[in-house]
């Protein structure tokens, strides 16, 4: 190991090293906060000056970081948020936490990483450690960072050090956080890995070294592709049980009593979020470059993407029981966020369900106590309706898409309005008006129909 290595290792161990986080979102801000808490001076770089202003005002925009905590970190004087990449001149180790979305045609969009690398090249100096955290396909660290810096004449493992360490932030998870979630890390050389382990070990409880950045990149994608495929599997089982007149939720509850060899997943209206809908597509895209076509990934993606259509078709069957059609029906979607008790709408299946109801001629509205508005496909801002049980009574059908824990399920089910429950949220209520995703539509008898429609 050369002088650069020993100088950086010493600076890390003494916490003299100046760390940097590029991208101060739901991954980068908690990471920067943890680094400052552990005694480091940290530069935070983000292109969005509004974020920088909020940080200086001690106003947290990330659910898992309280404004108090953020204010303490800023008051410590060891956190320097900026939009100016020139700050890279004074840092010893950089963690890159920028988005890796999908393009329109579901291909990886690594443009955010490319922009960061261009700026690193502008302010490049010897002895720096660079760790990419953004979820991406195997080979990204080598292709988009190592090759770029080596083209400038720098030698990896000597002039600069390079790692990949996947982010494992699970927003609103009260049990697991940046510090206590094990962190996988792969280095381009032994010296790179040793420095990566040294710096991450100072603010992450458990660091898991692996033999290369590719192994670390692949591990993250397999973690989330595992979820996508298993969710798709149980979504398919739900549609099968629906066809066979079996309650898939009861089946899953029975199956999960098996103490080994089974892991429950639950059907739903589709999958949302910043990870599960996207990560598998990064993997299948890269695999195609090796002429490997992952049928599991493509099938899972299409099965999960089909669920909003299944929800709307089932709604049609339910309304049919009341001699109504979707067209001209008043439909209320309960919950729009992609998972309970947060307001995050990214890739939320509820948005697709909303658009499909509109396309079918329904008058559709939504209620979500967390996600208060969104822009629909036409760019129109749609606002959540107020919580008003009298008003809820007037809808022809309600569709529970997100099972927020603060909804009054008893009051809602007592309204007698037909409900399509896509999350088994009404499981403790026996009502002829509650229809489950993954179970057949029970017929409303004539007498009952008059009662409800009349
Ligand atoms: N979903 C189902 N059925 C299930 C589980 C999830 O339909 O059995 C749906 C959810 O409703 C949601 C989507 O899938 O719309 C994604 O749900 P998620 O629980 O995977 O939540 P995410 O997207 O926040 O995933 C994150 C991931 N964390 C990271 O990538 C660091 C994922 O790896 C975690 O496993 C997950 O949180 C978690 O366990 O909460």
UniProtKB/TrEMBL annotation:
What SMART domains would the database entry show?
Answer: UDPG_MGDP_dh_C
**Official protein name in the record:** Nucleotide sugar dehydrogenase
The answer on whether this UniProt entry bears the keyword Oxidoreductase reads yes
Q: Name one GO biological process term.
A: polysaccharide biosynthetic process
Which keywords has UniProt assigned to this entry? NAD, Oxidoreductase
Q: Which family does it belong to?
A: Belongs to the UDP-glucose/GDP-mannose dehydrogenase family.
For the keyword Oxidoreductase, the answer is yes
The protein's organism comes out as Paenibacillus lentus
């Amino acid at each position: 190991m050369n002088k650069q290595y020993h100088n950086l290792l010493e600076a890390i161990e003494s916490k003299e090293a100046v760390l940097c986080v590029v991208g101060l979102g739901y991954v980068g801000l908690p990471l920067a906060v943890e680094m400052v808490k552990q005694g480091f001076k940290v530069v935070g770089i983000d292109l969005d000056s509004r974020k920088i202003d909020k940080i200086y005002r001690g106003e947290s925009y990330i659910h898992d970081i309280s404004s108090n905590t953020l204010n303490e970190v800023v008051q410590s004087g060891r956190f320097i948020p900026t939009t100016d990449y020139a700050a890279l001149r004074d840092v010893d180790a950089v963690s890159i936490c920028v988005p890796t979305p999908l393009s329109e045609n579901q291909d990886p969009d690594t443009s955010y990483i490319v922009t960061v690398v261009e700026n690193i090249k502008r302010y490049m100096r010897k002895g720096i450690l660079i760790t990419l955290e953004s979820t991406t396909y195997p080979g990204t660290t080598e292709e988009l960072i190592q090759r770029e810096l080596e083209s400038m004449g720098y030698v990896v493992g000597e002039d600069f050090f390079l790692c990949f360490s996947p982010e494992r932030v699970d927003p609103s998870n009260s049990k697991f956080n940046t510090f206590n979630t094990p962190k996988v890390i792969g280095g381009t050389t032994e010296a790179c890995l040793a420095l990566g382990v040294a710096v991450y070990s100072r603010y992450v409880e458990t660091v898991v070294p692996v033999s290369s950045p590719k192994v670390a990149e692949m591990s993250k994608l397999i973690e989330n592709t595992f979820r996508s495929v298993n969710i798709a599997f149980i979504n398919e089982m739900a549609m099968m049980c629906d066809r066979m007149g079996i309650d898939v939720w009861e089946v899953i509850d029975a199956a999960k009593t098996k103490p080994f060899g089974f892991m429950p997943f639950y059907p739903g209206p589709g999958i949302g979020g910043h990870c599960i809908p996207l990560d598998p597509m990064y993997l299948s895209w890269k695999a195609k470059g090796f002429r490997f076509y992952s049928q599991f990934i493509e099938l899972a993606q299409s099965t999960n993407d089909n669920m909003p259509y299944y929800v709307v078709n089932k709604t049609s069957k339910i309304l049919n029981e009341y001699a109504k059609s979707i067209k001209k029906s008043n439909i209320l979607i309960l919950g729009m966020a992609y998972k309970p008790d947060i307001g995050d709408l990214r890739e939320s299946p509820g948005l697709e369900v909303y658009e499909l109801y509109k396309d079918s001629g329904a008058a559709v509205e939504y209620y979500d106590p967390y996600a208060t508005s969104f822009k629909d496909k036409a760019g129109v801002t749609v606002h959540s309706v107020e919580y008003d049980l009298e008003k809820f009574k007037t809808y022809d059908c309600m569709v529970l898409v997100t099972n927020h824990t603060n909804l009054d399920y008893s009051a809602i089910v007592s309204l007698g309005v037909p409900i399509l429950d896509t999350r088994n949220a009404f499981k403790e209520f026996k009502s002829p008006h509650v229809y489950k995703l993954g179970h057949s539509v029970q017929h409303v008898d004539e007498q009952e129909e008059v009662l409800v429609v009349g």
